[in-house]
Write a structure and sequence with these properties.
Low-confidence stretches: 227-239
Number of helices: 9
Strand order of the largest sheet: 1-4-2
Shape: globular
Oligomer: single chain
Order of helices and strands: HEHHEHEEHHHHEH
Helix content: 25-40%
Radius of gyration: 17 Å
Length: 239
């Protein structure tokens, strides 16, 4: 938003090309225009992919406008700087949060609706129901998984190869769904938040153990640096 301080982006300009989308800017540069301010960050991410399809960079990091947040493990500048690009090339997709809370390992159960409930402050049911209803539109001909899980919270690094596992038309269809859905932005944006890992990897459950994620992808290999999963969720894989 125009009220968000994004001056921190300049600290990454030496090694990254910056695309500072301002979703409520009435007259943005043509390269940073979006069809409508709807669906939160999903509209921006999808628009970037669609508009740059023919010249997508070898790797991209999709982030919110804030430098720090409760759902983010530390300073975003330090987080991006610590990202191991060689590991990204191998993995294709890396979440910028390693901690399992408040998403992995079995958050969304769109068929049986018996997923883990994290608490009253985490609104899972609305996204779960919306995913069930939107699945055939977003992924026509694909069976709805029993479980969908990945680290929160719609911030990730991804390679061009991983993005282009799907066709441009797939991303256009996702964006059209956001433009057309009557769901409020908070819900439609969360639908995509829960699906980015699946979109980029085709893994319905994409929950690398926090310690492995922190060490392998960000070089935080000391025990004190490891995110700790909530009590009762240390067992992997989930039953």
């Amino acid at each position: 938003m125009s009220t968000t301080d994004i001056s921190w982006m300049g600290e990454l300009a030496e090694k990254w090309t910056l695309y500072p989308y301002i979703v409520d800017d009435p007259s943005p540069p043509q390269s940073l225009q979006i069809p409508q301010n709807k669906g939160h960050e999903a509209m921006v991410y999808l628009t970037f992919i669609i508009n740059n399809w023919e010249n997508l960079p070898p790797r991209a990091v999709f982030v919110h406008g804030h430098r720090s947040s409760w759902h983010q493990q530390g300073d975003i500048v330090l987080l991006v700087r610590s990202l191991r690009l060689s590991a990204l090339e191998t993995a294709g997709y890396i979440p910028l949060r390693c901690d399992w809370y408040p998403s992995c390992p079995g958050e969304i159960r769109p068929v049986t609706h018996d997923a883990i409930q994290w608490g009253p402050g985490v609104h899972r049911a609305d996204a779960e129901n919306a995913i069930s209803e939107a699945w055939d539109t977003l992924f026509p001909g694909v069976e709805l998984p029993q479980t969908i899980a990945s680290q929160c919270c719609a911030q990730f690094a991804v390679t061009r190869k991983a993005i282009q596992r799907r066709q441009k038309a797939d991303y256009e269809r996702m964006r059209d769904w956001i433009l057309e859905t009557p769901l409020i932005d908070d819900v439609s944006g969360r639908v995509l938040e829960k699906l980015w890992a699946y979109i980029m990897t085709d893994d319905a459950i994409h929950c690398p153990p926090p310690q492995q994620c922190a060490c392998k992808y960000f070089g935080h290999c000391e025990l004190r640096d490891w995110p700790v999963p909530p009590a009762g969720l240390a067992k992997w894989p989930p039953e």
